[in-house]
Known about the structure:
The complex is a heterodimer.
Chain A: H1 10-16, E1 22-24, E2 29-31, E3 38-39, E4 52-55, H2 60-70, E5 76-79, H3 89-95, E6 100-103, H4 110-113, E7 117-120, E8 126-127, E9 139-143, E10 153-157, H5 158-162, E11 176-179, H6 186-198, E12 201-203, H7 211-220, E13 225-228, H8 230-237, E14 249-252, H9 259-268, E15 273-280, E16 284-289, E17 296-297, H10 299-303, E18 309-313, E19 316-320, E20 327-328, E21 343-352, E22 355-361, E23 366-368, E24 371-373, H11 375-382, E25 388-398, E26 402-411, H12 413-418, H13 421-435, E27 445-447
Chain B: H1 3-17, H2 38-52, H3 56-59, H4 69-84
Helix pairs in contact in B: 1-2
Amino acid sequence: xxxxxxxxxxxxxxxxxxPERFFWDRAARLCVNDLARGTSLxxxxxxxxxxxxxxxxxxQLTSALALIxxxxxxxxxxxxxxxxxxxxxxxxxACAEIDAAVIDDGTLDHAVLDLPVRVVCAPxxxxxxxxxxxxxxxxxxxxxxxxxxVPKMAVHNLASLIAPIGxxxxxxxxxxxxxxxxxxxxxxLQIFLRAVIGGASLVLSCAGEPIxxxxxxxxxxxxxxxxxxxxxxxxALMSPAIGQIAPRYVRxxxxxxxxxxxxxxxxxFRQARVGHAYASTEAGVAFEVDDALAGFPADFLAHGxxxxxxxxxxxxxxxxxxxxxxxxxxxxxASLRDGxxxxxxxxxxxxxxxxxxxAGRRGGIINVGGLKIHPExxxxxxxxHPQVRMSLVRPKQNPVTGAIVIADVVLKADCARSxxxxxxxxxxxxxxxxxLPRHKVPAxxxxxxALDVGATGKLARRYG
Amino acid sequence: MSIKLxxxxxxxxxxxxxxxxxxxxxxxxxxxxSGLDSLGFAVLVARLEDSxxxxxxxxxxxxxxxxxxxxxxKVYESAQQRAVA
Lengths: 464, 85
């Protein structure tokens, strides 16, 4: 008899699930239950036992299958998001001591292909006897979506990842999850795990698929629970194909949900429960708000919920719970948790009546449709213009991307008198377009007489 | 210049800046099929606010984003009428 040292692995949970459920992508539909007595790894799972494995497949479906097989078998699984820059692969492989890769037909990167053990994952499940592999707790390593540089590697385990799942609304009837997210990021991984643990089916997104096709596919698969960021949802609401889905549960996470998007979703899906979750790769899911109002009840901060404790330090939210990541891999990063075990989210909140609302990022990081921006980077480009004295890049609320960047510019005294503002604005925009990716180019530039400089000598930045 | 022409000129300008190809601008053009992506529309809304002084989406209570170019123009036309009234 096998002695179980920890909670059941994902494959064991598949085996326990009785009703048939499916994973769909654009090309395939698989009955996941088959994985209980089958393999997608060509029967080579034993070669990955005890190794530090990177899942570097091109498709989400093969990533999903590989994760189910690897949990409880590999020592460490690093999940590579599809947009990971090739130049960072070497550093990530060294940092996580990766010695094996799961790849598929579409995997491109040579740094991964140089690893000593490479196992191909196919988007099919073939019957295979499961040799009893020793059950070891697997570390799940997720990459953070930083602003630039090598992504940080946050270490979770299956327990921390699935801890939020019991706390959500109960699943009633046949559930088909869908996600606009990629499951190789924390927000999407939550939905993948919800489907696996909850015995539900899952409709995966596909890179490059037009939104109308994706919505039609979600409709055909009968999606009942659908998740995405506010930006994903704003884009979906712009498609006439939105009428092809009728979810019972609409979920937002990954960005701050404002009241406008919550109201739009409630008006579009009158039968659905609309909820937003506050989560990050490091902090895990901190809480879910189901009253369709922006922000969260002040009571959450006072009393906590579901073993999650919140506190404010200098206006920023900190979280302590069994759902947070344990640490970062590598020695160059500051500790992921503070001395008391709280994770600093960097999100500023403000009290408004009996609720807290989000008031932007500490340090002024701006989120444009899920892409994070340091305003200083853009200001540095603007300030290269010979007639610019100083500049302030700030977020402006936007109905499509949540926020967009705009710039206030102070000109040198002689230039301000000489006129030609239109020409200077055009020159500055050209400078930005040449030096920066599109989402960092200010949507508009205002010439202003002065900017506030605080007592510390720094530009006064307002959050929000 | 009419609101419609302002919007169409700005769409062409943004498409040029973002290296996108615009579809022929007709009233029944679905915005998602126009050639501009989310960021393009985000910039369009921000610039329209600069030039017209209105942002009908963040100020209104029931701010559903329109699906077609014709509806998009109508949202701005009726917002401007409200602003003048």
